Amino acid sequence: MMMASEMPQIAEEDQLRADLYDFLGLLLARPPSADLLRHAAGLTGNETDLGQCITSLARVSKVTNEKAVTSEFNALFIGLGRGELLPYASYYLTGFLNEKPLAQLRNDMAARRITRAENVYEPEDNIASLMEMMAGMITGRFGHPASIADQKAFFNKHIGPWAAHFYSDLEGAKNSVFYASVASVGRTFMEIEREAFRMAAD
Which of these, 58, 101, 147, 202, is most buried using a 10 Å CB contact count? Predict the structure, then answer.
């Protein structure tokens, strides 16, 4: 969604964080392609909570096909009129779309020179875009890598107050099968990020 530039070098752990944010953004922006499903199926986790969620996602990805996951995505996020879930910060924080959280996000995007791609029409406060923005801030996609303090401020303002709630809703949604595993990864990752930022010095 965002414009990319040449990536500066960052610490390996930050690259891994950015990769996971980007991966979640890809899975939530549109139904995954066969190639993305194959990539997900090839992931290997470890014994941590997040690693076990990734292992589960890989297992589900192996038995999921493009047609089924497209149908699931549409039921969850598109629907007839609207999907089962509305994955927008404004909706989760105010009960309505296009409210103050979106305006605040747009101000912060402008300050960080983050721009919406021309072919994207979704409001910028959707979960996929926010995952992608965090990845870009970590890697320096929008100019230079953001400091931990800047990442923390952005996360705490635009992601922390609602993303874990959204992922929990996605885990339990009646149409959620493949996306229940995606949601488990997202919810667990958000908890890790929230705790890491809590412990980080401003």
Answer: 101
